[in-house]
């Protein structure tokens, strides 16, 4: 079991997009945390994928009115950015040692210590989902539930390792060149929204492309290096006791990884939602597909949308009150295989 202490410190805080952005010195370097909401409410921690921050990874979800009302009504949200991924970040020197994935997970513990959070709900996307899952395996008593989007849990395959190594070399020598951006967009989105020679790319892809141009290439390089040397969490998943809700786009390059992860977690605690015609970044490409599964998931904690419950939650979440039936495929959708729920985009 990992341990953490309370000797983290606040460097700077400023108002950002309606929330307050804190720069916190952890035992493994500074991180940016943007906080939205009432601190008396239960805490929701988010962690984005490589080259993204909370604005580019979770904006679609939190700008979806129904999802925003569900999450912001029930939680105070703490958006953690990987080192150097926050808006306006200065470049990290390549001479600075690359953090291990365990050190990145320990940074999350330091953030909780700084804000005085004993236990939290977690939401992560791909590489961020891996960091939060690792955090959950190291600090099991501090995680009440996991909402994971196209998560990683195994060590990189040789194919993934090779592609990441090529991208790392491109970032190191050429910066965020067009090839790097195209590879990242393929990682995030399905080909339907990336467009083609006959179909223009969608607004969300264009917006993401613009944000990638503003990122410091050395900072992306650092996080990519950390993730490319990650270790396998398969055995640790068997000890997870918190409820876990996994989303994955059917066209995600990490689809098989999500299925593998679901198969290794106790079926009493885990459900998989497969979103049709979607890539890895479900939070941006199809955020509305996450609403109903999240509603059922959070009902087990006694949390509802404002229209269903007018009182604002003020007490810690209790995982013991969750009914396993709420995470059954029948509750999440229609007749499907026990570990998978297909979300149809047709109304």
Automatic annotation (TrEMBL):
Chain segments annotated as transmembrane: 114-136
Membrane as UniProt keyword: yes
Keyword set, alphabetical order: Membrane, Transmembrane, Transmembrane helix
Sections of the chain in a coiled coil: none
One Pfam family it belongs to: Ndr
The keyword Transmembrane helix appears for this protein: yes
Family per record: Belongs to the NDRG family.
Protein's name in the database: N-MYC downregulated-like 3
């Amino acid at each position: 079991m990992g341990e953490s202490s309370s000797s983290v410190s606040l460097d700077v805080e400023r108002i950002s997009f309606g929330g307050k952005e804190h720069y916190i010195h952890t035992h493994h370097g500074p991180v940016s945390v943007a906080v939205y909401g009432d601190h008396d409410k239960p805490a929701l921690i988010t962690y984005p994928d490589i080259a993204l921050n909370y604005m580019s990874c979770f904006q679609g979800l939190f700008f979806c009115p129904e999802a925003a009302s569900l999450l912001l009504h029930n939680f105070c949200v703490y958006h953690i950015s990987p080192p150097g991924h926050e808006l306006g970040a200065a470049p990290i020197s390549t001479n600075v040692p690359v953090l291990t994935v365990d050190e990145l997970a320990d940074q999350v513990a330091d953030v909780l210590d700084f804000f005085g959070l004993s236990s939290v709900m977690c939401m992560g996307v791909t590489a961020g989902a891996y960091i939060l899952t690792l955090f959950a395996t190291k600090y099991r008593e501090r995680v009440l539930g996991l909402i994971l989007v196209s998560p990683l849990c195994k060590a990189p395959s040789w194919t993934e390792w090779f592609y990441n190594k090529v991208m790392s070399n491109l970032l190191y020598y050429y910066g965020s060149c067009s090839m790097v951006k195209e590879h990242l967009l393929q990682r995030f989105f399905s080909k339907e929204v990336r467009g083609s020679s006959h179909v223009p790319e969608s607004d969300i892809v264009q917006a993401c492309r613009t944000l990638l141009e503003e990122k410091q290439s050395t900072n992306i390089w650092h996080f990519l290096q950390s993730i490319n040397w990650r270790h396998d969490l398969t055995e640790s998943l068997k000890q997870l006791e918190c409820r876990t809700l996994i989303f994955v786009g059917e066209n995600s390059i990490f689809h098989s990884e999500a299925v593998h992860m679901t198969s290794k977690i106790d079926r009493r605690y885990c459900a998989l939602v497969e979103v049709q015609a979607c890539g890895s970044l479900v939070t941006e490409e199809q955020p509305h597909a996450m609403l109903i599964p999240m509603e059922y998931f959070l009902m087990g904690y006694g949390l509802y949308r404002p229209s269903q419950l007018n009182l604002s939650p003020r007490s810690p979440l209790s995982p013991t009150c969750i009914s396993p039936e709420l995470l059954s495929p029948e509750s999440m959708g229609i007749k499907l295989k026990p570990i998978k729920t297909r979300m149809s985009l047709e109304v």
